[in-house]
Structures are given as C-alpha cells and as structure tokens.
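Support request, please re-run this one:
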Amino acid sequence: MRTITNTYNVYKFEELTKDAQRDAIEKWYESDDRSEQSELFTEDSKEILKLLGFEGVKVNWSLSSCQGDGVSFTADTMYSDDIVKFLRMVSDNKANEQGYKLLESIVNKLHELWIKTNGFINPQIIRDYDYMIQFNRIQWNYVHSNSVQLVQDYTEMDEAETPEQVIKYFNNTVIKYFNNTEEFLKVAYLIICKDLEKYGYKCFEYRMPEDEFQELAECNQYEFTENGTIV
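Re-run finished. Output below.
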C-alpha cells in the first residue's frame, strides 16, 4: 500500500484570474442552499400582496421554467369595502407605500388597465350589493396564475324596491357592473402574478458582481483553487 498526497495552491478571490473569479461566483451559486432565498421571495411576495390590499395570503410558486410553473396566490374573501379601496388605489395610480419599485410598477400597470375600463365599474354599486370576490384554487398540480379562479358573489336589492324595479335595474344595469368588475379583477390578478413571477426569476438568476462577491469572500475567509473552487 502506498499513500499519495496531492498539494495545490490556494488563492484569495482577488488573486484569481477574471475567468476564475466568474467561475467561482457561478460555483458558489450552484452549491448554495437556496432555502433562504426562497423564503425571502415568498415573504416579499406576501408583503407586496398585503400592500395591494389582500389579506390571508398564501403564495404558491415554482420557478424552474417547467410546465405548470409560475406564481399564484389565494387570499381571504375580498369584500366590498376592500375592493373599493383597491380600485381607488388603482384609479389614483398611487401605491399604498411609496418608493417600493415593484409595488409601484404593478399599480402603474393596473392603472393602465383601469383607464381602458373606466366608466364600466361603479364603486357605489359594489358597496350597495355587498359585492365580494373569492379566490378558489382549481388546479392543485400546478402553481401558475390560471390555477386559481376568482369568483364573484353579491346580495340582491333591498326588498323595499318593487319587483318590477328589481328586475329591470338588477338585470340591465347592476349585472353589467358586476361582470365588468369581475373581469377587471381577473385580469388584474394575472398582471400581479406575472410581475411577481418576473421578479422571482430575477431574484434566482441574480449573480453578484466581482467586487460584491469579493466582500463576501473576505468576510467568510473563503480560499479558492486556481479554477475557482472553494476549499
């Protein structure tokens, strides 16, 4: 029996060649435990949705560029007052927290959608009829935005109205506003999920530049082989 001992040189990050530095960064991301990053993305998504006015949020996502991947969420039933607040934020194009780039971007896109439908949604009718939206998960094998269905519900008119008025008003006017509101919220939901998905891919595809990674390497006292492998 004989024992062979290999010896090799080790380097600080700044001593590596530029190619080796880029390889070192890529290898670090490949070997890194992404559970912390996953948790941060989930919490960021929940915070965005809360600022948009959704409560009791559960975020579902998978970002591997595979079939069924994407981002979706469910939330507590959204009642009339919260829906009106949401629509007011969108119509005013003013996010509930300023300086939050992703939130402001989403609200701006929703505002553009609002402009196209303005005049076809009546907030007062939403309140009068206790209009509400429910979030129902319909495809359990997937997590994309179409795996959740938004369903509207509402109460009927006050009994003090005559039956003739109820039939005429409820059928010809109110139903139109209900359906327009439901359609608006469905499209808004897809916009929100799509922007969260894009944000998620950016988070997971991000690679630190050399100077930022050098600080990380110094703090953790990383040393590398010539090809950029951490020893």
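The first strand starts at residue 58 and ends at 62. The chain has a mean pLDDT of 89.
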